[in-house]
Design a protein that fits this description.
This protein is mostly helical. It is built from seven helices and two strands; from the N terminus they run ααααααββα. The chain has a two-stranded antiparallel ribbon. Strand 1 (256-257) and strand 2 form a beta hairpin. Helix 1 runs antiparallel to helix 5 (180-228). The chain starts with 12 loop residues before the first helix and ends with a helix. It is found in: Cell membrane. One of its GO terms (cellular component) is plasma membrane. Keywords: Cell membrane, Membrane, Olfaction, Receptor, Sensory transduction, Transducer, Transmembrane, Transmembrane helix. This is Odorant receptor.
Length: 289
């Protein structure tokens, strides 16, 4: 007799909450910079990460000095410098303030526990957390696609036309990337640098999402609860207060970016979509060139 397969039990809000932060821990652990680890300290992976960062810093410093008299070439180096400075800042911050990361995790857990008391709130919280996990996966896929494109395109061009063209400016000292051996060594350097940056930047973005998702869920729950109240049964004075509360919940205080955009999940999602579109446009352009 055929027996239907049992439906998989949907993950609870608590399981989804832990999954959000476990994704951050796994990514950060790959480069030895897991500030959420209670036993965080010096490790081998951290040494390799710092070595890769020092190579990137040396390359940027060299090109900034070399191209200081050529404004066009100097402008092309500036994005690399910004990238390296951001990476250096994040790593120093993790080393110097790693207890704060655990404190933020604990505070986020307190907010989650406070909002996860009733069955209705648990359902809303689970939906928000599930969206956060999907968004984390979307970020990882986008960064991975960019990584694959940067590494595979030089190999593709080399196999088709024999030209050795690298998309990144990072080079190894005393290595001629015009030779086959030097080209492959330089490409291996790019792989190492991109792997470190992939884990680091995706980890930071995922940590940001894990922190703000419970807060967003709280605002959504507050609006939903206020909307479901039978205001017409309340005294006139309380009904007026309810209207004010509902208006404040729908227009909650927000962070702005230069006073022209609200810094929230929708804005973050739009930015990531535009970056994805730009990468795809660049890939199409290079393929047709």
């Amino acid at each position: 007799m055929y027996r239907g397969t049992a439906k998989e039990r949907p993950a609870t809000a608590e399981e989804l909450f832990h999954k959000l932060f476990s994704n951050v821990s796994r990514l950060s652990e790959l480069i030895g910079m897991n500030g959420l680890d209670p036993d965080f300290g010096l490790n081998r992976r951290m040494i390799w990460t710092w070595a890769a960062l020092l190579v990137a810093i040396a390359n940027v410093a060299f090109y900034l000095w070399k191209q200081r008299s050529d404004m066009v070439e100097l402008v092309m180096v500036v994005p690399y410098a910004c990238f390296v400075i951001q990476a250096l800042h994040m790593m120093i911050k993790v080393l110097a303030n790693h207890p704060n990361y655990k404190l933020l995790h604990a505070k986020s857990k307190q907010i989650f526990d406070m909002l996860n008391e009733t069955s209705t709130s648990r359902k809303l919280m689970a939906e928000s957390l599930q969206f956060g996990i999907v968004l984390q996966g979307f970020l990882a896929v986008m960064y991975t696609m960019a990584f694959i494109f940067i590494i595979s395109m030089p190999l593709f061009i080399w196999c088709i036309s024999g030209e050795k063209i690298l998309l990144l400016m990072y080079r190894l000292p005393a290595v001629d990337d015009n030779t086959t051996h030097g080209f492959l060594e330089t490409l291996a350097l790019h792989v190492a640098l991109l792997l470190v940056s992939l884990c680091g930047f995706v980890g930071i973005d995922c940590f940001f999402l894990a922190l703000i998702i419970p807060i967003i869920a709280f605002n959504n729950q507050l609006t939903a609860h206020l909307y479901d109240i039978k205001w017409y049964l309340l005294p006139a004075g309380q009904a007026k207060h309810l209207v004010l509360m509902l208006e404040r919940a729908q227009n909650a205080p927000t962070l702005t970016v230069g006073k022209f955009a609200t810094f929230n999940m929708q804005f973050y999602d739009r930015i990531m979509r535009k970056i994805y579109s730009f990468v795809m446009l660049l890939a199409t352009f290079l393929e047709s060139a």
